[in-house]
């Protein structure tokens, strides 16, 4: 309940782009259905057994993939960060790459100034983080990128634990996975990078058949502007952020440090 209520304000803002509103609305509906089923099971109103599979992923690669996946929604923001030039500099790929390089540069500087990702996010949660001299101050729409990079780092503690009332520190460590079991509920957090093998092992442990075909398939390379996004992420500032993300509680917990 609390986790779902926290999502609503992020959807209802007048400035939320239609693309992201529709995407978040779809997720919200599915999360609401799952939460209701979970509550029914825990209240003893259903004999159903619920199995929840969640994924951890290298936070930098998760952010890269998320930007590529939703690049259509991000382009209007990146256009505001573009400095018009001539010829090739005005192509859509140039707009994406140049805008992302500015975002990554300022985000790395901001996190370094605050002493790392975790201290930066703590100050942000308290409303004490200054965005002075960054694109996040001059172009407020670009804050969507700040929250994007924050999401993998704090999602399990702010949303997963709240929604399921399960603490990661209380889950059992089984190989690379985290597991929780009670009478009608089985929960596992798998690493995306080892998803195929570890999912099969988990299902075997809980007495369920492995699906005939389920794989962690990354189709980012086929998305529009994937090359421009990768060029920005593979640059010097991307490397700075990747190093900062490796020095987080999230990375140490799930094996990405």
Describe the secondary-structure layout.
Elements: H1 2-12, H2 18-42, E1 50-56, H3 59-69, H4 71-80, H5 92-113, H6 117-125, H7 135-138, H8 143-164, E2 172-174, E3 177-181, E4 185-191, H9 195-205, H10 226-233, H11 236-246, H12 249-254
Parallel strand pairs: 1-4
Antiparallel strand pairs: 2-3, 3-4
Helix pairs in contact: 1-2, 3-8, 4-5, 5-10, 5-11
Describe the structure.
By secondary structure, the chain is α+β, with helices and mostly antiparallel strands. The chain has helices at 2-12, 18-42, 59-69, 71-80, 92-113, 117-125, 135-138, 143-164, 195-205, 226-233, 236-246, 249-254, and strands at residues 50-56, 172-174, 177-181, 185-191. It has a four-stranded mixed beta sheet, with helices on both faces. It is globular, with a radius of gyration of 20 Å.
Element order: H for helix, E for strand: HHEHHHHHHEEEHHHH
State the low-pLDDT regions, or none.
Answer: none
Report the radius of gyration as a whole number of Å.
Answer: 20 Å
Which term fits the overall shape? globular
Q: Which structural category do the helix and sheet elements fall into?
A: alpha+beta
Largest sheet: 4 strands, mixed
Helix fraction bin: 55-70%
Oligomerization: single chain
Number of strands: 4
How far from one another are the termini? 32 Å
The neighbouring-strand order within the major sheet is 1-4-3-2
Average pLDDT over all residues: 87
Strand proportion, as a percent range, falls in 5-15%
Q: Helical stretch count?
A: 12
